[in-house]
Write the structure tokens for this entry.
Amino acid sequence: MIKALRGAGPATLSMLAERTGLSRPSTKDVVDDLTSLGWVEEVPPAAGTMGRPARRYRFRADGGHLVGVDIGAHNIRAALADLDGNVLAETRQAARPDAPLEERLAAIKRAVMGCLDLGGPTMSDLWMVAVGTTGLVTPEGRIIMSASISAWKDLNLAGLLREMFPCRVLIENDSRLAALAETRRGVARGAGDVVFLHIGRRMGTGLILDGKLHRGFGAAAGEIVMLPETRWVTAPDDLNGCAIVPKGTPIEDAAGFTLAAARNGDPTALDAVGRFTEKLAVGAAAAVLLLDPEIVVLGGGFSRSADVLLPPLRHRLERVCLRMPKLRGSTLGDECVVLGAIDYAIDHLDQFFFAPDGPALRPAVVPERTV
Amino acid sequence: MIKALRGAGPATLSMLAERTGLSRPSTKDVVDDLTSLGWVEEVPPAAGTMGRPARRYRFRADGGHLVGVDIGAHNIRAALADLDGNVLAETRQAARPDAPLEERLAAIKRAVMGCLDLGGPTMSDLWMVAVGTTGLVTPEGRIIMSASISAWKDLNLAGLLREMFPCRVLIENDSRLAALAETRRGVARGAGDVVFLHIGRRMGTGLILDGKLHRGFGAAAGEIVMLPETRWVTAPDDLNGCAIVPKGTPIEDAAGFTLAAARNGDPTALDAVGRFTEKLAVGAAAAVLLLDPEIVVLGGGFSRSADVLLPPLRHRLERVCLRMPKLRGSTLGDECVVLGAIDYAIDHLDQFFFAPDGPALRPAVVPERTV
């Protein structure tokens, strides 16, 4: 019923009965229940309507709030969204990869509180915090290890964050969430099988298979970076360490410098881009040859220069792939992980709370263990 | 209803009502329909039963027949099965990779007719012929290309076989069918995500994801062999061309000779096995790192020597994989593709004919276009 109302404008009971396949009396019962829960509200008739118009209802996307958090090695981003996934406020803080755990946790708290301050709602309006971060994350929200955040080592991150925020907490691998965002609001919208290449100072992949986030049997899917033949671990050095980058350029700006120079035809930069895309193409080709996806999305920090990277990547993939998938640069940029976290939270809402047999309570007041 | 009866022994109406969730009168109606179609029959009461026993019914697995065919470059195999997938008869013929199309088609016809002759049923008892073959096969049964059968080039194989056999014809990639057989009757039984390594004179992979055969957007999934870094195209030469293989050994026996010598500790043969498994491990690791499957199955011709190949393969995978899946040798041997073809045909039956809204006719008399 929520799906029949979400994002589709106000609807009458007859429209909802048709969309859901329920009888009109059953539709009325469900809508009444949802209204009393605060998830649905009646919309006043349009001004100037003649006679007695049919009552119209809409999903109350502002009936609760979600925060998506991207905990990277170098940045912590957060975004506040309504229950339709519309972003209302954002924060970003720089971080140090080797920051001690307490410092990183304090930054996460500031990120979420900052969003609430900016966006207006209070902690009690917060239904869910969904986190994307680097490394091996179990479905229960425990971090086994991460190659890029030193404090991430056999850590019950979900447990720590649940002590911090009095609401539901979800944790998932960042590249997987970014891939999800591409299929919900990005260039892969509606595609069934998607390979997301998460490229930047760190390289990763996220897979969407048959429309669903692919986690793998032990939550370790998407780690083609570990295959030595890809040389993905050191690939970013080709762009960061290019000879044309001026001495003293901060590491976070180095690759952008090289990519901009390549765009302007600098031969040294073009050579660096060539070496980088050659490595990128090995891992990308492995994924394409194995899975034959509908689309490959280039995302992450370097994807702002997708115009420079896509032509040489396409050229190399065409040489080895039996069938070329669509190849697109992400348009979600640095926000891909927070947006994916928000979309993941919305999926969780749809699955556990707005489902026909879901709990008839706001998520914030349902004890964690019932999910 | 067929699922509730298949493979589970005779059942009473009460048992069937419980298994299907239907009311008892509805169960009776469906069972009566299926009986009149010849798909279900009543079983006589056991001898010596006292009083009036409940009527018992069973699925008539012998009510129709299926043939699975494996069209390889060097061999054409076929197996006749009942509707439960039990194999009743088999044939094998040697073939030449460069045989002209007419010769290959004639061999396919002999393979199927040979199975019928051996097993007893006539052509009119044949419900389905399911074929596995090398190369890129579209869902409609057209072969785009094959690296190992020269006559397989932009060929409407399904169309040709439908002219040959008056029944339903299905065509699918052979490695995918072998992977399916492993999940239905092999070492991967019941696993959700499976990577099947099809190794022999030709190398391939088949993927089962979320319990389903993964075909890919353009039916080109599983082709990691095309990634140059795997060196899979030439990997079989390590075993076939080992110095210890006696001159004049037929190519089909060469690798077996090397593997047997390695089993006995011959250092030259062990070195060849080392080089082969090093290449095998690159493609296997790419699949494991990307997908994090529950199990990897080593199948195909060389898998008869899985005892020799698995330890060095495991050793190499453990060095690069974040999480080691189960690693097992196939027990289906050379029959893996024909068995997979039979299992694929049974899936097709379940989906299109035994489904609640399927056609109320034997597949052989339903026009092809209605499926």
Q: What stands out?
A: Chain A touches chain B at residues 136, 192-193, 205, 207, 209-210, 212, 214-230, 282, 285-287, 289-294, 320-323, 325 (CB under 8 Å). Chain A has eleven helices and 16 strands.
